[in-house]
Amino acid sequence: MTQRLVVHALTTLALLVTPVLAGCGESGSEGGSAPSYTSERVAPLPSELSDASSDTTPSPDDALVEIEMDSGGTAAVWIDPQDIRRVYVQASDPADPDAWTEPVLAHEAGDGCLTLDVDTAGETLAIGAGCYADDAFIQQAPESSVALVSTDLVSWESDEVGESIPVPEVVDDGDRVLFRNQVYDDRLDTEWERGEGF
């Protein structure tokens, strides 16, 4: 009788623990959080950056990318003109272009980022940021670049790719992202896959 109770107790415990463990071991944006469109646009407009190029800021073409997502909303990705170490993301509501998510800090670099490349498919948004650990305006190629991926516009997975200008290509309807290196003959820097990460 005692043995049967112990087996029953262990079986019950396994049934209770299994759903908790099923979500463990996955990183970043696989949690499935839904974006909340409760903000106004904070991302700079292209016209606000058109005269912003200087010796201490990235060029306007490199500092802001706007891209239409498959949902119908727009994602804006930008390097903060007040603090070029920071890369932010904000997205509009597909049902209301005046409603936006709160800006999300997707990455913070050591000395700054000078380039952005963005691609999207399905629910996946991928960013390649050309960043520097130090001396952003002295070194030639970014030596501390990063690959970033989100499937929910809330949380981000990242991979440091070193000396690179990483350009993402989202394939397989958003299930995979290839980051190609524009510094060294288009070699593959890194790859991300849904459920596996980097």
UniProtKB/TrEMBL annotation:
<keyword id="KW-0732">Signal</keyword>
<protein>
    <submittedName>
        <fullName>Uncharacterized protein</fullName>
    </submittedName>
</protein>
<feature type="compositionally biased region" description="Low complexity">
    <location>
        <begin position="50"/>
        <end position="61"/>
    </location>
</feature>
<feature type="signal peptide">
    <location>
        <begin position="1"/>
        <end position="22"/>
    </location>
</feature>
<feature type="region of interest" description="Disordered">
    <location>
        <begin position="25"/>
        <end position="61"/>
    </location>
</feature>
